[in-house]
Amino acid sequence: MGGDEIHDSLVTVHDSLVHPSPLIIWAGLAVLDARAPAQRNYGVCVVSNRIVDVGSHSELQKRHPDAIVVGDAALCLLPGLVNAHDHGRALSGVALGVADDMLEIWLMALGALPAIDPALLAQLEGVTLLRNGVTATAHSHNPSTWERLPDECAPTLDGYRTAGIRVAFHPPYVDQNPLIYADHPEFLAGLSDEVRATAQAAMQLPALSPRDYFALCTDLYNRYHDGANHTIHIQISPAGGVWCSDALILAACDWATTHATRVQMHLLETRYQAHYARRRWAKSFVQHLDEIGALGPWLTLAHMVWLDDGDIEILRSRSVAIAHNPSSNLRLRSGIAPLPDLLAAGIEVGVGLDGYALDDDQDYLRELRLAWTLANRPGAASPTIAAADILHLGTAGGAAVTFGGDSRMGRLEVGALADLALLDWRGIEGIWMSPLASPLDVLLRRANRTHVRHVMVNGEWVVRDGRATRIDEAALLVEVQSELHHASRQGQHGLEAARILAPHVRRFYTGWDAAE
Description:
The chain is α/β, with parallel strands linked by helices.
């Protein structure tokens, strides 16, 4: 059956989008595991939320004669993609007045985004990712204010659940350096009285106490964490090495290991974060975290652009995972992470959009293409990173980084959770593809979000013919636009504060460059 006929079959045969009876899903090109050969006319058999069999189209029909069959030779079958690091903002910062800049300046303006109902934002983010073929996402929450963090968590989780996407949710916390990384008295002393008052306001730490933060995480864990089917994971996030004390980071690691979950933390996103570590401890951030006992298999570090010599071996030896964010690293002027070196060391890596894709559209397939392109560096001696290696980062690698290695996601194999995407293979391959061409090369070089046709999460069709099944997207957009229209002007005030402070923060870090 063709792309339109798969939709017709699902509508006419099933009142429900979940399949308690066997369902065979096949495609002309099937990638069941990124690091295994692609198969022709191949598929899976799904019962409820699990894959119970894999094989050729004809073999599956013989083994499951009573199964309903959907698919087409013009489609491509993939494991569901996993967005290993994001913030779930759903809205374009650029369109709301937050221009791209270096991270340390951009973050000031980010706090000026208007406060929108977090459930609506999570629904919009969830639907957007699902239509990009993403079936699971990591969400590092950006509260509209620190005071509202406890009140925003449950609606955000409920919004993702309504959309039908899996989420690893980790509310953040900071207890130091909210504006600049060090030398606060010297920075303030060089400002005029008016600017100093603005800077001091930006240096306020969360009113939420560490005790209350950990209590919040525990409450969310007890209410939402699903360690069996991984629909929702509650994790913990000391927001970043520069913004968190050693005591906070270690307490977060203890909490995660006690609750058998994960820590996700930003680290070494910019050169100034690397400078901070050398200024404070005369060693790399990774070395310092290793010495205090913060590194281990429970930890995922986002970005990791500015690594020192020897850091990668430490990370490998401690089984630390990495969330790689190529678009965000470029847009926020952070740099290019050493992905080939991480892969060569055998470190588990996933790819995350960070809410900041190059085209501002959360196109995950294009994000994988960017990661692939940047990973193949100049020079005859540089290693060649294969398309299969990058697709692994977006599937099984991303699942391990985000949910842990036992999550049974990212591969279409017997016993795995039924998360998958069907893409328009004819549209991807174009007018003709040589038999000598690698299907994965063609897929990764050409596919984008417009090719995603149907998406299944946990055995349920959540996207059919490119449209969400659980949410009226047009009505959702009207609601979000209405909230934006009526948002208070506090965002404009925040943008003005960021504009005032930006030249002083830039000059501060320019001095760090000169001192190196």
